[in-house]
Design a protein that fits this description.
Rossmann fold; alpha/beta; 375 residues; single chain
């Protein structure tokens, strides 16, 4: 009985308690100690904790978990396979900036690997265990203690110590960028204060000179705004960009607007492009890679977008954004180092009024006019 209570308390702490001492935006306040909460919200994560806890012991890894990245850990492998999207990957790996000066390799999924080609930190990016099994590391950084992550770690290097980013944490939704930075700060021994950390926390991305040159050869206008069309989740796909564009060009018929996005937006972009064929609309949807599109965003004065991967890439290159959020509020995705003029609806971004977007555009334009890029 005492053993059971002890494991339950351990699971509750490791699953729902942030692993660092500073607070970050999360949805913990949405949960209460009600019977319904305990039954619906606690039990599944607790079972997951027990499964992971026992699996780490089963694979002989329990004695290798450590809680600090030490100065002698100069040759590191970071395993990140839990990020379900490009945006999540950028957020989860954002704190790698704090490891500059060390040699760090990355093992990740194929779909995310392209983000880190020519990266400022990662020396080599692996997607196949066979590519890395012969290498030796001082330390492994695990994204989480999922059985899949533990399996990969064991296959690559059974005897190397490891630290966890999310570890056992499986609690309320958190701001993933701030979680990454604060956990890395914790692992490094709190080398930065809370205020210092919050001011630098943002995603990062490296754009190769080849990609920069390719976009340069595209001969885009010298001044333009960009709009991300499409998306993966219906409640985060804004269907009234055409109305926004109509209002924008009614006030400035010379305004240059570039449409960007992936192949799920091709039909919508074509429709908008044809509707405004007599204006300065440029359709770049599904014509470039993610990082090449990021270079377009880098050159834009302002980016209109919904919550998604290209929003996080805009944050990496410090382009001011007008992001539309639904269900997940702005403070859960943005940090104070980001220049953003957000709008939010509890259910669907399509409930956000065109007039409100135009008001945010006025605010963003005034900011850009008063803050030249070279400042």
């Amino acid at each position: 009985m005492k053993w059971r209570i002890g494991v339950e308390m351990l699971g509750n702490k490791k699953t729902y308690t942030l692993p660092f001492k500073f607070d970050i935006p999360n949805y913990a306040n949405n949960y209460g100690p009600s019977k319904e909460f305990l039954e619906k919200t606690f039990i599944k994560p607790w079972i997951r904790f027990i499964k992971r806890y026992l699996y780490i012991h089963l694979r002989g890894q329990n004695s290798l978990e450590i809680y600090n990245i030490l100065p002698e850990h100069n040759n590191i492998l970071w395993i990140n396979i839990s990020a379900p999207s490009l945006g999540d990957s950028l957020m989860d790996l954002s704190s790698r900036t704090m490891l500059i000066g060390r040699k760090v390799d990355l093992f990740t999924d194929n779909k995310n690997s392209g983000l880190y080609k020519d990266d400022f930190l990662f020396s080599t990016v692996f997607t196949d265990i066979n590519q890395v099994v012969e290498r030796k590391y001082d330390l492994v950084v695990l994204d989480s203690y999922s059985t899949r992550s533990i399996d990969i770690k064991v296959k690559i290097d059974r005897l190397t110590p490891f630290v966890g980013m999310f570890g056992y944490y499986n609690g309320p939704e958190v701001n993933r960028v701030l979680f990454s930075f604060h956990q890395m700060n914790n692992l490094l021994g709190y080398v930065k204060t809370e205020n210092e950390l919050n001011k630098i926390a943002r995603t990062s991305i490296s754009i190769s000179s080849d990609d920069q040159d390719l976009i340069q050869r595209t001969k885009l206008p010298s001044s333009f705004i960009a709009i991300v069309i499409g998306g993966e989740w219906n409640h985060r796909i804004y269907n009234k960009w055409g109305c926004v564009i109509e209002k924008l060009i009614s006030k400035d018929s010379n305004l240059n607007i570039i449409l960007i996005g992936s192949d799920n937006a091709e039909d919508n972009a074509k429709e908008i492009f044809e509707k405004f064929a007599n204006y300065n609309i440029f359709n770049c949807v599904a014509k470039f890679t993610f990082k090449q599109t990021t270079e377009i965003i880098n050159q834009a004065e302002i980016l209109f977008c919904c919550d998604g991967g290209l929003m996080h890439s805009a944050n990496a290159v410090k382009t001011p954004i007008i992001p539309l959020f639904a269900r997940l509020e702005a403070h859960m995705q943005l940090t104070e180092s980001i220049c953003a003029f957000p709008l939010f609806d509890k259910r669907d971004v399509n409930n956000i009024l065109v007039e409100d977007i135009l008001q945010k555009y006025n605010e963003a334009s005034n900011f850009v006019d008063n803050h030249p890029l070279d400042e």
